[in-house]
What does this fold into?
Amino acid sequence: MNEKTAVGKISKQALLSFNMAKTDEEANKIIAENSAQEMLKMIQSESSVNAVLNSVKKYVEENSNIQIPDDVFDTYVQAVLDGKENDEVIDSMMKYTENIDAKDLTIYALNEVHNEWVKNNKYKFADKKRWFQFLPLEYLGWKEVDKDFIYVKPIIESLRKEVSPETIKTKYLTKVNEYLKAHNIKNRKYLEEELKETVNTYEPLDEYQKEEMLKDENYGMLVDEVYDRGIGQDKEELKKLLEDELILKNEELNKMEEKTINEGELNKELNKDLNKNFNKKNIGE
It folds into this structure.
């Protein structure tokens, strides 16, 4: 397989990240000697890659009036999974995806990959220190979310869209910031109150997992893990986002006030001119 295909790029990043290859050259050699399907099995990424691919169709159809024909989508998926995507296949998909925002699609895909991971990795639930990883995307923190970016980025880019870790991190933190505000999570105390509802309503979790997480002897530890290893790690950047947001709001308010003052001054001048003209007319009469 060619390392420049979507699966080739995913495989290379995974081989290096998982220490299955020590150098680019070694990773390229492994990829060249295996098919795309064999590589996905080797790096245990079949479900994650399928989740990304399916998220493309789901996102387009949920967020636009466009329906991607099954034959077009199936051809694209098979080409990617076989490591044989080409211009003809991509051009066919681009008719339906070219106006889709790359950052929004990437965040959506990251969420789908994570939900799939929660469903498929129940055996990892035995380690209580990993429980925070079984919560919705908004609670994980960028360090955790970034681990799945290696599966998402090459597939989004196969559709001729550009995404970078920096822009997606900012987009993710903005999403988290909106979530925290919507759920009134201001600090650890508010997080502790809200998290119970989150656990109860998060669909990928089964009933056993929910019960274990919410037991009195476990719940405090779960909150600590989220606050220390999940979104808590992004506290400073989230704080900066809030400060920037406040600055922008103040700037907008200042502009509105300035506009109001300017309009008031203009109205005064107009009134003066009107009164002057009115007086001249009356005097002349």
